[in-house]
């Protein structure tokens, strides 16, 4: 059965595609069915339910669209081949001319469906109420005059299609006046005198010589007739608004005898009347010819004709308004489609301009279209010129993906004028315009006749190019309608070209960035020789380095010792075997991480190493590695080592105040996002890919935990999560196995662990704590100096070198508001962490003692102006370089902004900043922190 059904459908589709011609132009050529097909078709006709069900289940989208095309296309519509519908720039999606809108046609624009098949917009039938069929001519003649007029008025009152309405009007007046046939002309063009003759008012008719047997479809096949305003009998009636009744047409000098000679029909008498709207404006002219009894039209006929045409005027005005609204909808559909075409793909200027040229030529229907891009430096010249000639898209071979360039001579006088002034130029005859240079046609085999030239502007209103259309088809002139279309299209084109320029610049910038990152990645990676040397070193035990001690101090470790200690942590946690990490790659990765820490005072490699050691100690002492699992533990250790990568010695607040590039990249957790990005860069650099052997799922999980861990070192994030963590601690009192099954609790615990390890210097013995506090203060004071010298700002107290004596009291406040709550919570969760809390309290007592001494007038000295001693290996080096890549250092070692950057901050006001750690020891509400980034 499927074989039988498929053949008729296939034949029908083929018949749709066959060219029309001859008397049956516009209709599908009849398909030749054999006997078997004929029987099948007859069976289908008798079993409509089966056909309906089969069509719903089996008909492909192409069949549905083909049905829509065959039932919706006017006979004169030109359909693109489905195989070319999706060819992008080479073939326009729409086959609709702007001229269709101008002449009032209702041609439906074509669009491309999802699968590339052409179909029509607005293919849903109008939900107009069904009307009873009009009575026959014989039945109408049996009615009296009043009933007849009422019947004929009722026939036209609900008709909204102008062409059908006009046809009904002519047939009805022929019945009323007992005339043989009639014609109807509609007014088109501008009411005011137009500088372009062809754009002025005229009378246009496609309904000429309509008789009782004529159909609207037959009339549609005829060529339209255009009569100049005031010319002939019809023109006179339209201009004067008065009727004309001619008993003998051949005796009236206004009658055109040529029409009878062409048609073979002899006109004897005619009655011609204007059709006016309610305001008395002439909408058209109706004309009836030859009374059936061979007599002239009487005065009574004139009265009946005039009465009926009053109703016709109202109906015609309504139909025209409806048609205009429909045309406006379709005009918007065209412009939306043009906008979609412009913005859907903006890869290159060549591709963009080709699409513009192709669609413009299809819309306006002219011989040539040119797009000239204005030179950015010299607005009077053009950097590139693209052109398209009618027929270029029909060339055999591979479809074009870029337009021709500089193929035709440029009318520099006209295009230069438009590019300079931005005015639109519409020239009906190029050779009569002084700006046109006739030499461009010499030897070209081409003659400029009509020209429409318009500026293309970007979103800022700047002229970036010119679009020029030459010689509209059918020897027509470019109209105001064309100008409106091109103007609207030029707006989209301007934005499209501008966006494509920006896209090309972005692609170039991305390519440069990629090269730069590749170079930086190479130079940021440790050398293979250094990795081999580290690989050859013996790795002592954890006990040798005291890695399990919460009171760990790195003062006696060399840099090589810190690297070997890191390797020991990876070995003891079984990361190397469990995740198949190449040992040589791990050595190189560690060296690369160390290399990417700047030699700032505190946030350097030594700090990162100490944070990782504290995480290792807590995970092993508490056995919480069983709660997190090996993947999350790996992410935590990597996160600790990388959490301050490329730190510049200044915090998030400074980045925002200085409007640094980092602050422009990341609006929140500025430095932390940068640390994470640097971490990923190293992990993905060749020779440093320690996660290369993880599955894609495990890799994604490690990266996600790694990102959360590094971002958690932002104090703002810490405060946002702390209350929820403290609530859980107060209820559970200990970390149970259930925590391992709850992602939310594990995430909270990981975040708090990162903060506890980051601030762990406060939990060290007093000598270590005081030494680290001096380093932190030194880094803070350097930032304060930058804010005063370069940003003209007053730093917060903790970063103000002038308030150095208040540091002890500020340290006490720091401990009370930030440190104590978190370490008290961890002491509750596990007893092995109690020593951390004890040392925090002990250090607080030391700071209180120093604060009291300072309040009594004793000089407090952190020795911040002295160079670190050479045996103090807790700092990165004896020479501290905390300059950023946006700063320039002077000979004195002070840091200053470049003169260009300095000028940006000349007018900056000094903002009111809040302090977390001030110079008082009064108790404050720990939940109230207004300016957390000032501390971070």
Chain-wise SSE layout:
Elements: H1 2-17, H2 35-46, H3 48-58, H4 61-72, H5 98-102, E1 110-112, E2 118-120, H6 137-141, H7 145-156, H8 162-177, E3 179-188, E4 202-210, H9 216-220, E5 225-228, H10 232-240, E6 244-246, H11 258-263, E7 270-276, E8 282-291, H12 299-344, H13 349-364, E9 366-374, E10 382-389, E11 404-405, H14 412-421, E12 425-427, E13 451-457, E14 463-472, H15 480-524, H16 528-536, H17 542-545, H18 559-572, H19 575-578, H20 583-595, H21 605-622, H22 625-628, H23 630-642, H24 652-657, H25 661-665, H26 670-683, H27 696-711, H28 715-732, H29 737-741, H30 743-758, H31 766-790, H32 807-829, H33 834-855, E15 887-889, E16 895-897, H34 899-904
Antiparallel strand pairs: 1-2, 3-4, 3-8, 4-5, 6-7, 7-8, 9-10, 9-14, 10-11, 12-13, 13-14, 15-16
Helix pairs in contact: 1-2, 7-8, 8-12, 12-15, 13-15, 16-20, 18-21, 21-23, 21-30, 23-27, 26-27, 27-30, 28-30, 28-32, 32-33
Structural class: alpha+beta
Distance between the first and last residues' Cα: 78 Å
Provide the spatial order of strands within the biggest beta sheet: 5-4-3-8-7-6
Low-pLDDT stretches: 1-33, 73-95, 105-132, 193-199, 864-936
Q: Residue share in helices?
A: 40-55%
- Label the overall shape: elongated
Query: What's the mean pLDDT score?
Result: 75
Question: How much strand?
Answer: 5-15%
Rg (C-alpha, Å): 44 Å
Let me know the largest β-sheet: 6 strands, antiparallel
Number of strands: 16
Helical stretch count?
Answer: 34
């Amino acid at each position: 059965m499927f074989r039988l059904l498929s053949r008729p459908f296939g034949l029908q589709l083929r018949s749709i595609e066959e060219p029309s011609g001859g008397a049956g132009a516009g209709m599908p050529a009849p398909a030749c069915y054999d006997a078997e097909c004929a029987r099948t078709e007859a069976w289908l006709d008798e079993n409509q339910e089966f056909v309906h069900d089969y069509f719903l289940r089996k008909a492909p989208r192409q069949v549905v669209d083909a049905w829509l095309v065959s039932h919706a296309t006017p006979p004169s519509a030109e359909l693109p081949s489905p195989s070319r519908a999706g060819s992008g720039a080479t073939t326009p999606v729409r086959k609709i001319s702007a001229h269709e809108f101008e002449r009032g046609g209702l041609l439906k624009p074509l669009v491309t469906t999802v699968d590339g098949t052409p179909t029509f917009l607005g293919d849903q039938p109008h939900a107009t109420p069904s009307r009873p069929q009009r009575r026959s001519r014989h039945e109408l003649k049996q009615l009296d005059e009043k009933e007849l007029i009422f019947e004929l008025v009722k026939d036209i009152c609900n008709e909204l299609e102008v062409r059908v309405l006009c046809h009904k009007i002519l047939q009805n007046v022929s019945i009323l006046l007992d005339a043989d046939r009639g014609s109807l002309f509609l007014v088109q063009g501008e009411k005011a005198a137009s500088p372009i003759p062809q754009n002025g008012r005229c009378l246009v008719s496609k309904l000429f010589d309509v008789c009782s047997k004529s159909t609207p479809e037959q009339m549609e096949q005829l060529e339209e007739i255009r009569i100049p305003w005031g010319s002939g009998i019809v023109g006179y009636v339209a201009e004067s608004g008065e009727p004309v009744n001619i008993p003998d047409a051949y005796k009236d000098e206004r009658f055109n005898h040529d029409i009878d000679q062409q048609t073979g029909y002899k006109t004897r008498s005619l009655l011609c009347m204007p059709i006016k709207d309610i305001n008395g404006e002439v909408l058209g002219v109706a004309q009836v010819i030859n009374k059936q009894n061979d007599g002239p039209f009487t005065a009574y006929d004139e009265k009946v004709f005039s009465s009926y045409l009053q109703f016709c005027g109202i109906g015609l005005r309504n139909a025209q308004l409806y048609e205009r609204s429909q045309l406006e909808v379709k005009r918007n559909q065209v412009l939306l489609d043009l906008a979609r075409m412009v913005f859907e793909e903006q890869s290159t200027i060549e591709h963009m301009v080709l699409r513009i040229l192709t669609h413009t030529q299809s819309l306006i229907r002219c011989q040539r279209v040119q797009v000239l891009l204005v030179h950015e430096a010299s607005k009077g010249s053009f950097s590139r010129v693209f052109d398209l000639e009618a027929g270029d898209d029909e060339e055999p071979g591979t479809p074009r993906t870029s337009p021709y360039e500089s193929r035709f001579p440029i009318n520099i006088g006209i295009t230069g004028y438009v590019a300079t002034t931005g005015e639109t130029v519409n020239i009906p005859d190029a050779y009569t315009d002084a700006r046109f240079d006739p030499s461009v046609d010499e030897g070209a085999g081409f003659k400029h006749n009509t020209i429409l030239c318009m500026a293309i502007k970007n979103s800022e209103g700047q002229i970036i190019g010119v679009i020029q259309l030459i010689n509209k088809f059918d020897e027509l002139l470019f109209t105001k309608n064309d100008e409106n279309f091109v103007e609207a299209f030029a707006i989209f084109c301007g934005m499209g070209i501008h966006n494509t320029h920006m896209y090309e610049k972005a692609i170039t910038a991305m390519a440069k960035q990629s090269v730069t990152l590749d170079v930086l990645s190479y130079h940021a990676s440790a050398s293979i020789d250094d990795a081999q040397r580290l690989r050859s070193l013996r790795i002592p035990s954890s006990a040798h380095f005291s890695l399990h001690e919460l009171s760990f101090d790195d003062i006696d470790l060399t840099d090589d010792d810190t690297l070997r200690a890191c390797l020991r942590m990876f070995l003891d946690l079984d990361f190397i075997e469990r995740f198949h990490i190449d040992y040589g790659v791990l050595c190189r990765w560690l060296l690369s991480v160390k290399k990417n820490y700047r030699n700032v005072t505190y946030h350097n490699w030594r700090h990162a190493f100490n944070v990782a050691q504290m995480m290792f100690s807590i995970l092993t002492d508490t056995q919480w590695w069983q709660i997190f699992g090996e993947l999350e533990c790996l992410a935590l250790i990597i996160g600790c080592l990388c959490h301050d990568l490329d730190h510049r010695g200044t915090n998030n607040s400074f980045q925002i105040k200085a409007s640094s590039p980092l602050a422009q990249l990341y609006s929140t957790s500025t430095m932390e996002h940068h640390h994470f990005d640097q971490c990923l860069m190293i992990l993905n650099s060749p020779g440093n890919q320690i996660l290369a052997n993880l599955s894609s799922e495990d890799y994604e999980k490690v990266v996600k935990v790694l990102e959360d861990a590094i971002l958690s070192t932002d104090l703002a994030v810490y405060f946002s999560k702390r209350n929820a963590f403290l609530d859980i601690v107060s209820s559970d009192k200990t970390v149970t196995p259930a925590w391992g099954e709850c992602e939310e609790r594990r995430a909270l615990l990981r975040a708090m662990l990162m903060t506890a390890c980051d601030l762990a210097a406060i939990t060290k013995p007093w000598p270590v704590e005081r030494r680290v506090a001096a380093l932190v203060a030194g880094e803070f004071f350097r930032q304060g100096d930058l804010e005063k010298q370069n940003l003209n700002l007053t730093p917060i107290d903790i970063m103000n070198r002038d308030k150095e004596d208040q540091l002890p009291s500020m340290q006490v406040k720091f401990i009370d508001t930030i440190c104590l709550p978190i370490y008290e919570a961890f002491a509750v969760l596990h007893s092995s962490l109690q020593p951390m809390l004890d040392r925090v309290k002990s250090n607080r007592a030391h700071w209180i003692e120093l604060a009291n001494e300072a309040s009594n007038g004793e000089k407090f000295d952190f020795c911040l102006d002295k160079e670190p001693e050479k045996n103090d290996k807790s700092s990165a080096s004896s020479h501290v370089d905390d300059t950023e890549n946006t700063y320039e250092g002077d000979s004195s070692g002070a840091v200053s902004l470049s003169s260009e950057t300095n000028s940006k901050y000349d007018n900056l006001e000094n903002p009111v900043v809040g302090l977390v750690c001030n110079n008082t020891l009064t108790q404050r509400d720990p939940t109230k922190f207004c300016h957390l980034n000032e501390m971070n």
